[in-house]
Amino acid sequence: MFSAGRGDELADTITSYLQFCEDSAITTKETKVYANSKPWINRELRQCLREKKEAFAVGDMNTVREKTKLFRTNSVKARAEYKDKVEAKFRIVKAKEAWQGLNNMMGRTTKSQYIKSDNPKELSEELNRFYARFDVGDSSSECENICSKLTTDAAPLEVGEQEVERCLRRLKPNKAPGPDGLRGSVLKTCSQQLAPMLTQLFSLFLNIPFVPRMQAVVQKTVAGLRTMSLAK
Asked: pTM for this structure?
């Protein structure tokens, strides 16, 4: 007999094996990100800045002037190369990445829009009336009629292998992983290999019905908590 505990165990086993294969096959690389770094700053410009700081520390002003001139020259070239990369994104129809590049070049960041009001209490009441304007009658009888018409002997849901593979290929690699921790890039790249196994897993959970705990609950970490929560 299939139980909820075995369902969690099955989902955890498959997910853990996929994570093991991901860690074994994909190499990781640590990169250093500077707070005020621009996207066109390359290794040559960083090396030039490092040499300029070293020369300034020892008081060699001639070298400082030379490195400053070299940095300006290389910076113009780096900006032109980055501009060509952004234009190439438009040519290959990658509008999202192209607009991100333009915003980086202009130094423009999106700011959250907040509603300002002189009377917050009146604004909250107005919003409450607006969103609750449809909830004015008692619809319990209609809900009971609809529930009574639903049949329990409906045909079981079926998931096809091609449908699962198609959904995996549509995943966006830049999106954050879900509660299971599997990356979208891995699922999309290995969609053909993972489709048969995931089809059987989804069909099993749909017929039970059952939702694995790891797919429904996100584990909280210390990094995801606010300072006030940690203080409590």
From this structure: 0.53
191 φ, ψ to 5°? -65, -40
In whole angstroms, what is the distance from residue 130 CA to residue 5 CA? 45
pLDDT (tens digit per residue) in 90-113: 888 788 888 888 887 777 766 666
- CA dist., res. 1 & res. 127, Å (int): 51
pLDDT digits (tens, 9 = 90+) for 9-60: 888 888 888 888 888 888 888 877 777 778 888 888 889 989 999 999 998 8
The single residue listed with the structure tokens 């089809």 is 199
